[in-house]
Automatic annotation (TrEMBL), chain B:
InterPro entries: HATPase_C_sf (IPR036890), HATPase_dom (IPR003594), His_kinase_dom (IPR005467), HisK_dim/P_dom (IPR003661), HisK_dim/P_sf (IPR036097), Na/Glc_symporter_sf (IPR038377), Na/solute_symporter (IPR001734), Sensor_HK_Regulatory (IPR050736). Residues 649-690 form a coiled coil. Its EC number is 2.7.13.3. This is histidine kinase. Gene3D superfamilies: 1.10.287.130, Histidine kinase-like ATPase, C-terminal domain, Sodium/glucose cotransporter.
Length: 65, 918
């Protein structure tokens, strides 16, 4: 797995995460108006974070099979 | 409001529960039924990352900076994504070479350097002391909040003196517990199963406690997330917290720096290294931790912002210390037990961090700072210490106590002035200095000891100047003057705007300068010289750990020692009984009967050193082992030779392949040659039988006529003359046959003599025709000559060519019909060659015999019809013509005669220049 497909997927996930959690993508969510009654930045950060954890879980648990 | 007795009793009860868990874990480990050998416990133990800083400090940070608490947890999420690249390699390296701390890791990588190990230890201790102080501060302020020893803003009353200060007793209690968890006995593997079990348990407790408080604040005090956020949006002051730009002045650069800092910290913090690398049971557990640990971080952070906003909404801004919201909100609502639960959660976070961190740091202090110094002293070397396990344990326990007391000291000196989060970030920036030397050491062979030393030193100095000293100065323990005007009044040396770099927050600023200085020094100094043999060998062991496997290190050690010397040495540090046991196991693994049969080979030395490395660190182990070993240090060339060995083996196998291919080709050639030999053998047999057959025919007639003359003396003269004539003619034929056979043999073997002279072919043909004229006349045949006008010169053996002509002409004479026979001989010059045709109107040769007539003893026609001959004329003629580079062939149609043709090459212009052959 270290050099296999899952390893490459994880590296790709890292770069996607690094992109999403930094400027300029982050600034897209930084709006002052509420999003479903909650701060958009806070909601988006947690949703993206959860999605990333989900993707990583999918990659590694799938590789375990 | 709770009484102090209740809080202390509950705290001690909780610590005892923790200890019970740890004791249970240790017992199970001894029985071989580990309770931590699963990926869930492993991932939970990693959550020691979440300390009191997370538990109390995140809320405090969110209260002043909105979502700015998040990079500290996004960084680890990103880092864990790369765990299969980085952490797995660290785990494999640490397991293979028994590395038990970051200091040991770096020291081992750069040639087992004591100096480097000591420097890393000092950085780790200095960097971790504020962090430990932070935990003490969290516990003590939590206690004061719970017991009501605080003012209306929940700020604790200042402790009047050291003796009355509860924090000191907290520190001492924690020291005792840490010793119980991590330094009760000495373990060669430096693994603490019980401690890991307790940490995992604590992780569950702190998560549950925090979630309970979060739910309480969000859904009991307020009416869910929507309600809190709606109120926050309504408050113009709080609304600013909800945006990244307005909440902090650090900007996106600061956000990135914070993420990077946390990313590095989760790998290089001593306690993370301890639980992730040293305490790892199975590499496969890392797989689940890759997502489970980030998921834990996400869960524990969901309620941070709601609690912070809730506290600010409830108490108002600036009235209550936001770091205590987790406790003060339940207390303000009269939920004492809830507040106690929150305190236990915070206690969990703080104790977990303190226990693991001090164990990790004390291992470093013992193995990489105290032991090397002890080993250096003459007194220690000379004196006989039969068993040093007690000394080792004593050093570790002392180190644990010392680190905690230093933490307390920092808390007394600077703790009050700083918020929790800022202290934590200072520590993070310190451990980030390990990153270049660690990562460089794992992926780059070129790093040298001086490079690592320079990098660490530069990074540490810049960190201390730009972050540590300002924090001390701001606490009032140093003159603030250098902060505002720079060192020695030099403006460009202002610690928080080094070289005039302004516009960054202090953490980003310090991180940038320290890492820049660190990486630059590490790389540039490393590139100043070629690595030494030991550095190169260690570099290879680390960089290629996945390729080399477990047995490789022995190859880099050239030295030997008797087991009688090594066993007592190991026993001094591990205890006699355990040392005997592990040597026994080692012997059995090698199929030997017992310790006595162990051979003094490099492998044994390596084994002993690895065992010692677990207990006293790689560098000290090397020193100890080399005291009993006759070791020859390896030079760079020799190390490279060893490294080349593998490629040589590959080269050998390649050569072997080539050779076997060549062998196959040779076999095929030999087989062909064998076939050819068999064929020649067959031809020889044929030749012999032909020759004997040809010899027998004339011999038979000679013998018959001789016997007739011998038996009957009264034969009349006429018959006698006729018989003698036949005998003479047959004898001549025999002589001719023997001559031809000899001739043939000579030509074929290349021993024939050739007398080359300049000859005129026209003359030669005329001469030959003249010689054979009588033969044709006897048959009544006509000979036609077609010769060119000018002479055709050529350099060759005159007699041999005459032989060829005579053979062809006599053949023609033999075969022409008795009536109306004719023969035509033509000589002509073609480009580069002279051509001779001898045609007749004989019976012709069937096409299937055209090739056969040039073989030895093969004559055309059947036995009866063919005229007399040896069957060697044409083969010899062909040999002669081919000797001069020409060709001889025949064209024939049955019933219409045959044409024998031969060509001889001549130089284009002049016959004189024909070079002589032999």
């Amino acid at each position: 797995m270290r050099t296999g497909l899952a390893g490459q997927r994880l590296v790709a996930a890292f770069f996607v995460g690094a992109l999403l959690f930094n400027y300029p993508v982050l600034s897209l969510f930084d709006r002052s108006e509420p999003f479903i009654g909650m701060p958009m930045l806070w909601v988006c950060l947690f949703v993206l974070w959860a999605m990333m954890i989900g993707v990583v879980a999918w990659i590694v648990e799938r590789g375990a099979r | 409001m709770l009484s102090g007795t209740v809080v202390v009793a509950v705290s001690f009860a909780y610590l005892l529960v923790l200890f019970a868990v740890a004791y249970f874990g240790d017992r199970r480990a001894e029985q071989g039924r580990s309770i931590i050998a699963n990926s869930w416990t492993y991932a939970l133990s990693m959550a020691v990352y979440c300390t009191a800083w997370t538990y109390f400090g995140s809320v405090g940070r969110a209260a002043s900076g909105g979502v700015w608490f998040l990079p500290i947890y996004l960084g680890p999420t990103l880092a864990m994504t790369l765990s299969w690249l980085v952490l797995l390699k660290m785990i494999r390296i640490a397991k293979t070479y028994r590395i038990t701390s970051i200091a040991d890791f770096i020291a081992s990588r750069y040639g087992k350097s004591h100096l480097l190990g000591g420097l890393v230890t000092i950085i780790a201790v200095v960097g971790m002391i504020p962090y430990i102080a932070l935990q003490l501060k969290a516990i003590s302020s939590g206690y004061t909040v719970l017991t009501g020893q605080h003012d209306s803003g929940f700020f604790p009353f200042a402790g009047s003196s050291w003796v009355n200060d509860g924090t000191l007793y907290v520190a001492l209690t924690l020291a005792v517990f840490t010793v119980l968890f991590g330094a009760r006995h000495l373990d060669a593997t430096e693994r603490h199963e019980g401690m890991v079990a307790a940490i995992a348990f604590e992780s569950v407790v702190k998560l549950l406690a925090f979630l309970v408080i979060g739910v309480f604040v969000t859904y009991v005090v307020f009416d869910g997330f929507g309600d809190i956020f709606a109120r926050a949006f309504a408050d113009p002051e709080l609304a600013g917290l909800l945006s990244l730009k307005t909440a902090s002045s650090a900007g996106y650069g600061g956000w990135f720096a914070m993420t990077l800092l946390a990313l590095l910290s989760v790998i290089f913090l001593p306690r993370q290294f301890q639980v992730t690398v040293v305490e790892n049971v199975n590499e496969q557990h890392l797989r689940r931790a890759t997502w489970l640990f980030p998921a834990y971080l996400l869960l524990i952070n969901i309620f941070v912002l709601p609690i912070a906003l809730g506290g600010l909404l409830y108490f108002g801004r600036g009235t209550v210390d936001p770091d205590t919201f987790v406790l003060s909100l339940p207390l303000a609502h009269g939920e004492g037990m809830l507040a106690l639960l929150a305190f236990v959660g915070g206690l969990s976070a703080a104790t977990g961090m303190v226990i693991v961190e001090t164990i990790a740091v004390s291992t470093m202090v013992c193995n990489d700072l105290v032991m090397p110094l002890l080993l250096r002293t003459e007194r220690f070397k000379r004196s006989e210490h039969p068993d040093l396990t007690g000394l080792l344990l004593g050093i570790r326990r002392g180190a644990i106590l010392g680190v905690l007391l230093l933490g307390y000291l920092y808390f007394r000196l600077a703790g009050e002035a700083y918020a929790l989060v800022s202290i934590g970030l200072i520590s993070f920036a310190a451990v980030a200095q390990f990153a270049p030397a660690m990562l460089g050491g794992m992926y780059w062979r070129g790093g040298t000891r001086e490079g690592a030393l320079a990098g660490l030193l530069a990074g540490f100095v810049v960190w201390a100047y730009t972050l540590m000293l300002p924090s001390v100065a701001k606490s009032g323990w140093l003159d603030r003057d250098f902060l505002d005007h720079g060192l020695f009044g030099l403006g460009f040396l202002r610690p928080e705007q080094l070289f005039g770099l302004a516009g960054l927050d202090s953490i980003s600023h310090a991180l940038f300068w320290s890492l820049a200085a660190n990486i630059a020094s590490y790389v540039l100094v490393s590139l100043a010289r070629v690595p030494t043999g030991q550095e190169a060998s260690q570099a290879t062991l680390f960089v290629d750990v996945f390729r080399r496997g477990q047995d490789a290190p022995a190859t880099f050690w050239r030295g030997s020692a008797q087991v009688q010397d090594l066993l007592p040495l190991v026993a001094r540090f591990l205890g006699a009984e355990r040392a005997r046991r592990i040597f026994q196991t080692y012997a059995l693994e090698r199929g030997l009967g017992g310790i006595e049969q162990l051979k003094p080979d490099p492998g044994l030395v390596q084994f002993a050193e690895t065992q010692l490395a677990g207990a006293i660190g790689g560098a000290s182990a090397r020193v100890m082992v080399s005291s009993v070993v006759q070791e020859e240090p390896l030079g760079l060339d020799e190390v490279m030779d060893i490294l080349d060995e593998a490629s040589q083996v590959r080269a050998y196998s390649h050569q072997l392949e080539e050779k076997s291919q060549a062998l196959e080709a040779a076999t095929a050639e030999l087989r062909a040659a064998n076939e050819r030999l068999k064929e020649l053998d067959r031809l020889k047999d044929d030749f012999m039988s032909s020759v004997t057959h040809e010899l027998r025919t004339p011999l038979t007639s000679i013998r018959a006529f001789s016997e007739m003359l011998f038996d009957d003396p009264k034969i009349d003269l006429k018959d006698r003359t006729r018989f003698l004539g036949i005998i003479v003619s047959e004898t001549e034929r025999l002589t001719r046959l023997v001559n031809q056979v000899l001739d043939m043999a000579k030509i074929e073997s290349g021993h024939a003599e050739w007398h080359n002279t300049d000859i005129d072919m026209r003359e030669l043909v005329e001469q030959a025709v003249e010689t054979t004229a009588q033969l044709f006349r006897d048959r009544g045949a006509v000979v036609e000559l077609d010769l060119p006008d000018e002479a055709l010169h050529l350099r060759a053996d005159h007699d041999r060519l005459v032989q060829v002509m005579l053979n062809l002409l006599s053949n023609a004479a033999k075969f022409v019909p008795t009536a109306g026979g004719w023969a035509r001989i033509s000589l002509s010059r073609e480009t580069g060659q002279i051509r001779v045709d001898v045609s007749d109107n004989g019976p012709g040769i069937p096409s299937d015999e055209l090739g056969v007539i040039f073989e030895k003893f093969r004559q055309g026609g059947d036995e009866h019809s063919r005229p007399q001959g040896t069957g060697l004329g044409l083969p010899i003629s062909r040999q002669i013509v081919e000797h001069f580079g020409g060709r001889l062939w025949v064209r024939s149609t049955v019933g219409q005669g045959s044409t024998f043709t031969f060509v001889l090459p001549v130089p284009p212009e002049n016959a004189e220049t024909v070079q002589s052959t032999q």
